[in-house]
Structure formats: structure tokens, C-alpha cells
Specification:
single chain; MutS, DNA mismatch repair protein, domain I; Rossmann fold; 4 domains; six-stranded parallel beta sheet; 41% helix; 19% strand
Length: 461
């Protein structure tokens, strides 16, 4: 009898299997139903093994066929894009590509879709990116592109969705796509998102990111689910020709005597608590333990308030506001993005400086209007927290000002990437402003552990 393959809620099911160790090693016997079951992602390996054995099989799992799709007009990829596509092809159409922001990852995906000619699901982190990808795909491939997310449920042969929506719907459509593209694929290792790739049959897989490495080693999960890292291009290799040349300037500012006193008192209270409880932040569960411990007693709640107070003082010191104003005046002819670590700081700056704020709370129509006004030059400055870290195309920005952020190398590289889109005569400039004699100085050092910040750096002020 022919082996039958079925798709069931993100798994691959076979009622019977040939007596082959390699094949049976991929499956487990389902004690409830008696069938053999494995994650849908093993579909390709199972089919190839069945073909290798010469065993007849009936594929009732797959719900896709080759797709007649081609570029609407010829595209000549840049050398780094061609090298990435070639490496991905040699790896059998599976793997990860790390390219700097602005280096054309979206176009690389377009070329991959045109090459493999399979129905494709593109997964992105935000609704803004979903709309952006839809426009690029439809323009280059000349086909209607569906969307799943943001209140839209329109699945087509080419579809763009968000990680949140894909995680909820993979069990229903995981057998409808032959190519899975994960943009900003460093999100995929999150426990709630892994099922997107685990539950998909897609034999072809492409992961795109500007910064693959994760502090928790999650890049190994990306490699397991999407394929190995097949190509990497560094920012420094592209600046000046494919990305705008740039300079990084770090400005360290002092707290006022009053701010320093209040900061030190709050920090001492917070540190006394975590040391007394033996809480360490150099282990993955350290922060979660602090949050749990700080809610159990009055002392803990006071320590949490002290943590927030010392952090607020360091992030919003009066000297930072003065520096920001001076930098904006110096670059009043340029378009600038001001990055902060949290929404509270964004709104505080917006009220003080009468500048527009863009956060994840900003409604989509307003967000589009702000970005359009920024692109036209009507708005020369945008204040934001983290919503512009990833993917949003803002080629007009020349100046970036990081007033605060996390210790993440990825976040810092992404923020640099926001101002590197190439434009004739453009030279980008990134300012990093941090408070001296606070924890922010060490945070700044941690997030700067990347070649993009260690070469050609401007002098600190």
C-alpha cells in the first residue's frame, strides 16, 4: 500500500510507514489515534526520503502547486544581493541571510519568490511592515497580494502576515505555502512564534535579518527551523556605495547636583534590595525574579519604584534635553529621528518641545500621516521609542539621536540602519547621548559591541 501523508493542525500524519529507521526516526506514534505524527516542518525530509527509498506515496498534505509568477520588469540585483541569493539557492532554498538595514532584504525575497515559483507566506513583525511588503511584492511580481492581520483576512497565493497572526493561524494554513519568508527572523525563537515554522510544510524557507545574534542563543532555533546562515554582509562593506556613509558621535552629559543626589539615593535603595535577595541579572531569569520579588512586600515595591526613579532621572536629565535642542538646531535643515527607550519619555519630550510623537499607541492612519509628512519635509523631526527600530522605510532621515535605549546590540544597529538609506550626497550622522555616572554608561558600552560602532567613531563630547 502507498504511504499516505496528511496535514493536521500543524503536524504531518502518516497512517503507515515503511520499515525504515531514518524515516521512522522523524515520527512518533500517536497513542490516541495509532498514526505516525511529526512536526509539519519535516515534510521536505519525509518526501525526499520516500523518493530515495522508491516507496509509493500519496501526498494529501500539500495544498499548493507551482505558481506562475515572474518579475514585472527586469531587476539587476546588487552584488551582495546576488551573492546572498546564490548562497541560498546552493543550500537548497533554505537558510538565513544577514544584511544591514537598507541593503535590500525585501528585494532579495522578491527574487527568491520569482526563482522558486511557489505560493509564499511572508511573516513580518508589524502592521506597518505588512503594508510595506504588500506594496513591494505586488509592484515587482504583478500579482494581488493577500494580508492576514490588522483586521484583514485575505489569504492568497502570495500573502503577508504578522508574527502574531501567523502564530494563531498556522494550524489552518500551514499546508498552503511552498515558501516561508520570515522577515526580522530573530523574532522567530520566541516560544509563541516557533510554531509558525514548526507547523508549516513549506519546503523552501528564507530568514532575513540585520542582526541574527541573540543574547539567549536563539539564533540556533532560527537555523533549526529555517536553515543555516548562508550569507552575511557587514554594514562597513556597503557604506558609501550601497548605504550612505555615516559617522557616530557619543555625547556624555552630567546630571545636575540635584539629579545626581536623587539618582544615587534611589539607586542605592534598589541595589540594596536586589543584593539582599541575591538577585543576579547575568542569568536569564534574573529580571523576572526581581519583578516577582518586588511585588511581594512593601520593601520590594519601594525598590521597584526606586529602580524606575533612578532610571527616569538618567534617561530624561535636563542636560540631555539641552543637548537634544542644540543638535536639532545644528541640523535644522535635515530630517532627524529621536529614539528613546520608552513611551513616557517620548511624550514628555513632545510636550516640552512641541514635536510629533510616534509610538506603538499611535493609530495606523495617524502613523501613516506622520511618516508621509516626515518624508515630504513638512515635519523635520520625529520622536519615537521603539516602533521605528525595525523595517520601516525612512530614506529621508539623515540624523539619528539616541537619547536612551536598551543594552541590545541589535536595537542599536537597527537604529543606525534607519538613517543609512542611500540618497545622493547624503552622509548620515548618529548621536548617542547618555548620562555620566549612571548605569546608562555601562548600557551604552554593551550595546556598542558591533563593528558598525567600533570603526570610524567620532570623538565623544
Amino acid at each position: 500500500m502507498a504511504t499516505e501523508l496528511h496535514f493536521d493542525c500543524g503536524t504531518l500524519v502518516a497512517p503507515t510507514l515503511p520499515d525504515d529507521g531514518a524515516l521512522r526516526g522523524l515520527f512518533q506514534r500517536d497513542a490516541r489515534t495509532g498514526v505516525f505524527r511529526t512536526a509539519a516542518r519535516h515534510y521536505r525530509d519525509v518526501v525526499l526520503r520516500l523518493r530515495e527509498l522508491g516507496v509509493p506515496y500519496e501526498d494529501r498534505a500539500r495544498r499548493f502547486e507551482p505558481l506562475e509568477v515572474a518579475l514585472t520588469s527586469p531587476v539587476e540585483p546588487f552584488p551582495h544581493q546576488k551573492a546572498a541569493l546564490d548562497a541560498w539557492s546552493r543550500a537548497g532554498g533554505r537558510g538565513l541571510v544577514e544584511l544591514p538595514t537598507g541593503a535590500g532584504k525585501t528585494l532579495l525575497a522578491v527574487l527568491a519568490i520569482a526563482q522558486v515559483k511557489r505560493p509564499t507566506l511572508v511573516v513580518v513583525p508589524t502592521l506597518d511592515l505588512m503594508t510595506q511588503w504588500q506594496g513591494v511584492l505586488s509592484r515587482h511580481l504583478g500579482q494581488p497580494v493577500g494580508m492576514l492581520g490588522g483586521g484583514v483576512s485575505d489569504r492568497r497565493a502570495l500573502t503577508v502576515t504578522t508574527y502574531d497572526s501567523a502564530a494563531m493561524q498556522t494550524e489552518f494554513h500551514g499546508n498552503h505555502f511552498g515558501l516561508l519568508v520570515c522577515d526580522e527572523c530573530h523574532h522567530l525563537p520566541a516560544p509563541s512564534y516557533r510554531f509558525i515554522a514548526e507547523g508549516s510544510l513549506a519546503p523552501y524557507r528564507l530568514g532575513l535579518t540585520a542582526t541574527l545574534e541573540r543574547t539567549d542563543g536563539g539564533e540556533r532555533v532560527c537555523e533549526e527551523l529555517l536553515g543555516p546562515l548562508v550569507h552575511r554582509t557587514d554594514i562597513r562593506e556597503l557604506q558609501g556605495r550601497y548605504l550612505a556613509p555615516y559617522e557616530v558621535r557619543r555625547i556624555e552629559v552630567p546630571l545636575t547636583p540635584s539629579e545626581q543626589t536623587r539618582h544615587d539615593e534611589a539607586r542605592a535603595r534598589y541595589l540594596a534590595f536586589i543584593r539582599g535577595r541575591g538577585i543576579r541579572f547575568d542569568v536569564p531569569e534574573g529580571w523576572a525574579r526581581f519583578l516577582a520579588e518586588s511585588q511581594r512586600t512593601d520593601e520590594g515595591r519601594a525598590a521597584h519604584r526606586a529602580y524606575r526613579e533612578q532610571r527616569r532621572i538618567a534617561l530624561t536629565s535636563s542636560a540631555k534635553l539641552d543637548v537634544l535642542w542644540r543638535v536639532l538646531l545644528e541640523h535644522r535643515e535635515d530630517r532627524a529621528i529621536v529614539f528613546t527607550d520608552d513611551n513616557e519619555t517620548v511624550y514628555t519630550l513632545a510636550r516640552r518641545l512641541f514635536l510629533p510623537a510616534l509610538t506603538h499607541h499611535t493609530p495606523v492612519p495617524e502613523r501613516k500621516a506622520l511618516l508621509a509628512s516626515f518624508a515630504s519635509g513638512e515635519l523635520p523631526v520625529l520622536l519615537t521609542s521603539r516602533v521605528l527600530n525595525e523595517g520601516v522605510d525612512v530614506p529621508e532621515a539623515r540624523v539619528g539621536i539616541v537619547l536612551s535605549g536598551s543594552g541590545s546590540v541589535r536595537e542599536h544597529v537597527q537604529r543606525l540602519g534607519r538613517i543609512l538609506r542611500q540618497r545622493p550626497g547624503k552622509r548620515a550622522l548618529l548621536y548617542e547621548v547618555c548620562s555620566a555616572q549612571t548605569a546608562e554608561s555601562s548600557i551604552s558600552e554593551r550595546r556598542r559591541q558591533h563593528r558598525a560602532y567600533q570603526e570610524g567613531e567620532g570623538e565623544a563630547c
